[in-house]
Design brief:
This protein is an alpha/beta fold. About 30% of the residues lie in helices and about 15% in strands. The chain starts with 9 loop residues before the first strand and ends in a 5-residue tail after the last helix.
């Protein structure tokens, strides 16, 4: 299936305790590169609600913002990558999205999630029922142009290799902290490069 080389709109999905403003630098650079960007504020952003609730907000935002004929790409950070996966794998997003990029997302969970008993945090624990379910048919994501970006120095996603995926493109950016991934020029440039690529299966 060919993927158009022309820039799709890019939806930016933030992580826990963040808002869409966390993407300010990245969004500016993407716009300079010719992309239109969109972001939303997931509410609540602190794990008080299950991740399915946040994924439904992503679905509703996409329904409001993009026509059924409009393909778009998703760039998601940390928890936002897991929320976006639920949207893609369970709420029909696979039919609308062409490129999916996760940045330091706990695909296999993070032991730091044991620090909280909030529903959304419990779901991001290693081997949680939520992640087992999503990973049971993870091959669905092979329909997309998928990229995982992560840093081996991550102190939020523990172990950092939890951000790896068994397929797709993998990019390692040696940023020294979890939040720096969003402002690291190497990471932003890597995202721009991926979004500009044309893939033919």
């Amino acid at each position: 299936m060919p993927i158009s080389p022309s820039p799709n709109p890019v939806l930016l999905v933030h992580g826990i305790t963040d808002t869409g403003k966390v993407f300010t630098k990245m969004a500016n650079q993407l716009r300079l590169a010719g992309f239109s960007t969109h972001d939303l504020d997931l509410i609540p952003n602190n794990g008080d609600e299950p991740l399915e609730v946040l994924a439904k907000q992503v679905q509703e935002y996409c329904q409001r913002s993009f026509s059924h004929q409009q393909k778009f790409d998703i760039v998601a950070f940390s928890m936002g990558g897991i929320v976006s996966r639920y949207y893609l794998q369970r709420l029909g997003g696979l039919d609308l999205v062409e490129r999916f990029i996760t940045i330091s997302s706990p695909h296999q969970g993070t032991i730091l999630a044991y620090a909280s008993n909030k529903p959304g945090c419990v779901q991001m624990r290693p081997n949680s029922a939520f992640l087992r379910d999503l990973n049971s048919d993870i091959d669905q994501l092979k329909k997309l142009d998928f990229t995982s970006i992560w840093t081996p120095y991550d102190l939020m996603i523990l172990p950092p290799r939890s951000s790896k995926m068994p397929f797709g493109r993998e990019i390692i950016i040696p940023a020294f902290t979890h939040p720096w991934m969003l402002t690291d020029n190497r990471c932003i440039q890597a995202i721009i490069n991926v979004l500009k690529q044309t893939r033919i299966d």
